[in-house]
Structures are given as structure tokens and as C-alpha cells.
Amino acid sequence: MVALTYFVILSVSRGILQKTIRDSLITAVENNVDEVEYYSSLYSDAAANDIDYYVRYGDGYIEIDDDFLDTVNDVYTSLCQADGTLIYGENPIALDTEELDFQDSVVQRVRVDGTLYYVFDRQLTLDGLEGFWLRGVVSEEQGETELSAISRTSLILQPILVLIAVIGGWLIAGRVLAPIRQISETAAQIRQGDDLKKRIELSDGSDELHQLASQFNEMFSRLEDSFQAQQQFVSDASHELRTPVTVIRAQCDLTLEEEEAGPEEYREALEVIRRQSKKMSRLISDMLDFARLELQPERYQKEELHLSALVEDVCSDMALIREKNITLTCEAEANLRMRGNRELLTRLLTNLISNAYRYGKTDGHIWVRLRSEPDHSFVLSVQDDGIGIAPEERSNIFRRFYQTDPSRSGKGNGLGLAMVKEIAEFHGGEIRVQSEPGTGSTFEFFLL
Ligand code: ADP
Hints:
binds adenosine-5'-diphosphate; rod-shaped; about 20% strand; alpha+beta
């Protein structure tokens, strides 16, 4: 680029200089044209003007005015006869260009001793001057000084500009690349050390790279959260599975070690083992359902289903429980339809109603309601007048394996509400809870 710019500057300057030289050649010659006159005789006042130059010619005189400039701006002008005889003025290449024909108002180029000259001829036309020519000559070298000054200046300036561009580019690139380097270093540290807590620390700023870095940080936070949730799930699951296994082993040891154990003791031991294995199998099946919903959601196909009928069916089945003499009332708006998975929606409602029984009070009530909203969404709610949930517990109850009071939850394993939340999200909905300790709880499933 630098070389190209250099050559462009030089060739453009050369073009301009040549044009300037030719123009000044033409101007100089043209200005001299009017300074040459012919007089058939000399008047006294003309003769008195001794500044002008007179040449005797034929019967009269050629007057060369004192304004005639034979050298101006390195342009030499000479007055010649048609055969080339020099009458007045200067022509540095007269001898070398004797053969050069006169051509009126034409710029000719001629090379003498390796130097290029421009020659401009002008035929004089005034009375008595026919056959006379003015010849202007200028050497191309006249522009060389300017040209070499331009070339020298650009030779000095261009490297300085290149240096400035390189240093500036290096500084800017350094500033631009620093955050990227930091992003990649943090990513590498996370990869090497498996430390998801690391974050990209950048100075304040709001440009694209800062946005990228904060997106990365957000992504790391989400990865950390889900990684932690996964680890928590595994550790909770192992813990939950270990309890029934420990009980089964202890029961076996106890019964086998008891020397006088009769059929009654064996039956009791088998009952305990059956209960614990049922718990385990329920837990395993719930965990498998989670895994399926998370990893293979495509296994749960959505179909157009009659939501009102589904709600009524589940309610009429669950109303048979009549645990703690609780009454279940169903108020489902008729003919509501939606796209969803029958099995999962049944599970959602069953879990909510089971909880309402489990945490309901004796002789209490459960209200299951389904209504449509003006914005085409549905709300499915399960309300009870049971023990309620303390405000500080409300954000935790949807976590897997979370139980406020395991002794109360009976057959529950703390996965019920987590599953409800998962199913709600699978259907693009959300689940909300309102509760007052001692008064009851309402779980609402909002669905678009
Ligand atoms: P669990 O198997 O313990 O019932 P869930 O995930 O279904 O697990 O519920 C988590 C916790 O939320 C429960 O331990 C209970 O404390 C609370 N909870 C759920 N539903 C109700 C409800 N209807 N009334 C009061 N507390 C509830």
C-alpha cells in the first residue's frame, strides 16, 4: 500500500508538473507575441525610447518591446526567422534543434543530450512580421526539483505514517483482544480445573466484547447451577435410596439373628421389607420419569385432549380416597380443550390432589377448579384448607427431594412438586402457590 501510494503520488505529481511546465511555456510565448512589432520607419518618439530593442529588417525595423521576456520561469523565448536564424532572445538548444520544423501553436518534445525539452512555436502574423516565429523552449528538468522534493517528503512521511499505523493498530488490537484473551483463559481454566465458579473479570464497559463476556459469565452461572442441581440430585437420590436399603438389611439381620423367631416375626420382617422395597421402587420410578422428561421429552407426545373431562375423571377417582374424611369438590368449566400429554397432566393433578389430602386437615375440603381466562389461557387450581406452607418454605418446595417435615409426608419422597413443576414447564405453563400457614394452600397451574 505504501509503495503503491508512493508511486501514485509521484506519477500524479509528475503529470501535474508537466502540465504546469507546458502551460507556463505557452503563456510565456503568448505573452511575448504582442511585444514584437514592425515599423517601416522610426518615429522620433519611438526612437527616443531607447529601452526597446530595434533590429533593422528590410526597409524598416523590428521593435522588440522591453516587456519581451526572453527568460521567464526557465522558459526561453527567441525570435527567429522561418529558416531558424535567431534574431533576438535565447534558445539554449538552438544548435541542436536547427532541423526542428516550426509548427504553429503546437507543443513539441525533443530530447537533447538525454534531457527532454518542450518546444512551443508561434507564428507572428502582424504586418511586416510574416515569416517570423517565436520559439519557446523549456527543459523538463525544471520540474525535477519540485518532483524530487515531493518524492523526498513522501519517502520520509510514508514510513512515519506506516509506523504510526502499526503502533496504533497494535495498541487498538491489544485493547480489543485483551477481553477475548481473558475469555479464552477463563474458559481454559474452567476446562482444566473443572472449576465452574470462575468468571471473566473485565473492566467496566458496554461494548460488544463486554456483552459477550457477560453472556459467557451468565452461561457459566447457569452451567454451575445446573451442575450443582445435578450433583445435589445424585446425592439426594443416593441418600433416599440408602435409607430403605439400610432398613431392609437391619430387619434381615435382626430376624435372622433372633434364635426363637417364629412365623409371626418372619411375617413382620417381610412386611417391613415389602414396604421399604415399594418405597424404593416408587423412588426409582419417579427418578426415571424425571430423567425421561428431561432427556427424552419427545417420548411424551402431545395430543389434542379434552381437559375438562380429564380433570373430572381424575377428581372422581381421587374423591374415592376420602382420607381424613376430606371432601373433594370439582368445578371444571365444560368443554375446555388443549394440546398436552394425558399421562403427564393426570400425574400433575394427581400429585397436587395427593398433597392436598396429605397436608389437609381432618374433615377438610379440597377444591379443584378449571377455568378459562379471557386471553385464551387456562388456570387449573387445587385448593385445600390444610396446614399451609410457611412463607420461607414456599420457594423451596419445588426443589427435588425437599420436604418441610418428612415425618408428615408419609409415602411422599419430596419429588411430587418438582415433577409438577417439570410437567408445567413441559406444557409451556407455570405453577404458582399461595398459602397461609394454618389456613390452607392453593396451587395454580397457568397454561397458555
Ligand atoms: P412430599 O412427597 O413430601 O409431599 P412434594 O414435593 O409433593 O413432596 O412436596 C414438597 C413439600 O411441600 C412437602 O414436604 C410439604 O411440606 C409441602 N407441601 C406440598 N403440598 C402441600 C400442601 N398442599 N399443603 C401444605 N404443604 C404442602
